[in-house]
């Protein structure tokens, strides 16, 4: 297997008496698309937030390229090269699409752009890549859901990440929009960026991800190649809520 760029050991998150994630180890291979799946309430988004630094673990550590991330802020982690999108889109609604992405270029990228025009040039290139350059001057609030999800991705890409974490980026999209977004994700990976994605669309992850991890009730129950993981009786039972026999 290729070398690991992002890893966690013993990751645990407690909310009072509730344990949302239980002693999970994760290893994300460099340059791959790593899928994190599981039924509702499995702890996927919590693990995602622990890895991204959005939430501090109750126990465990996160490493990026051999360096600890666990006590760093999300902003510092972004500068290091790990950036996350949000499941519920969070654009600066009254600002233009272009300015939203320009902010990503200014505050995430190192070295920083050489002034505003350089940052806007970076943002324009990213918008072209994401297929929304024709809406650059529109207020972000005028984009439909698919457009706002692409804007989330564009703002993350403007930071020049080594790893991008996508939280249910396909949720709510129609089949055409889903296929376009899958093409965009493939192009990001082809450009050398490692991708970790939380996703419910099993058809999409089967055809897109090179590696899958499955969480159930906060525990890792399966991991490996997509076809093998999705055929695992434990995984099938977790999704269907029944026991499975060969």
Terminal-residue CA separation = 29 Å
CATH class of the largest domain: Alpha Beta
Which fold name fills CATH's third level, the topology of the largest domain?
Rossmann fold
Write down the Rg. 18 Å
Strand elements, count? 10
Looking at CATH, the homologous superfamily of the largest domain is P-loop containing nucleotide triphosphate hydrolases
Shape: globular
Fold and architecture overview:
By secondary structure, the protein is α/β, with parallel strands linked by helices. The chain has two domains: 1-81 and 162-246, P-loop containing nucleotide triphosphate hydrolases (Rossmann fold); 91-160, no CATH class. 37% of the residues lie in helices and 25% in strands. It is built from nine helices and ten strands. The strands form two sheets. A six-stranded mixed β-sheet has the order 6-7-8-3-9-10, sandwiched between helices. It has a four-stranded antiparallel β-sheet with strand order 2-1-4-5, covered by helices on one side. A hairpin with a 2-residue loop joins strand 1 and strand 2 (18-29). The longest helix is centred in the last third of the chain and has 16 residues, at 175-190.
């Amino acid at each position: 297997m290729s070398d690991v760029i992002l890893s966690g050991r013993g990751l645990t998150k407690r909310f009072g008496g509730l344990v949302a994630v239980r002693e999970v180890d994760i290893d994300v291979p460099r340059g791959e698309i790593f899928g994190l799946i599981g039924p509702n309430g499995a702890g996927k988004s919590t693990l995602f937030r622990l890895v991204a630094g959005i939430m501090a673990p109750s126990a465990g550590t996160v490493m990026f390229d051999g360096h600890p991330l666990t006590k760093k802020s999300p902003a510092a982690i972004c500068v290091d090269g790990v950036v996350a999108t949000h499941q519920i889109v969070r654009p600066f609604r009254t600002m233009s699409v272009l300015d939203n992405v320009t902010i990503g270029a200014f505050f995430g990228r190192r070295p920083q752009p050489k002034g505003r025009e350089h940052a806007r040039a970076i943002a324009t290139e990213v918008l072209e890549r994401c297929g929304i350059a024709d809406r650059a001057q529109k207020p972000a609030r005028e984009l439909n859901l698919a457009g706002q999800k692409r804007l989330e991705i564009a703002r993350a890409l403007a930071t020049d990440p080594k790893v991008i974490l996508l939280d249910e980026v396909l949720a709510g999209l129609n089949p055409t929009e889903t296929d376009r977004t899958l093409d965009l994700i493939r192009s990001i990976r082809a450009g050398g960026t490692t991708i970790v994605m939380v996703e419910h669309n099993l058809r999409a992850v089967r055809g897109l991800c090179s590696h899958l991890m499955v969480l159930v009730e906060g525990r890792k129950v399966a991991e490996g190649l997509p076809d093998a993981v999705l055929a695992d009786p434990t995984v099938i039972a977790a999704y269907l809520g029944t026991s499975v026999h060969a």
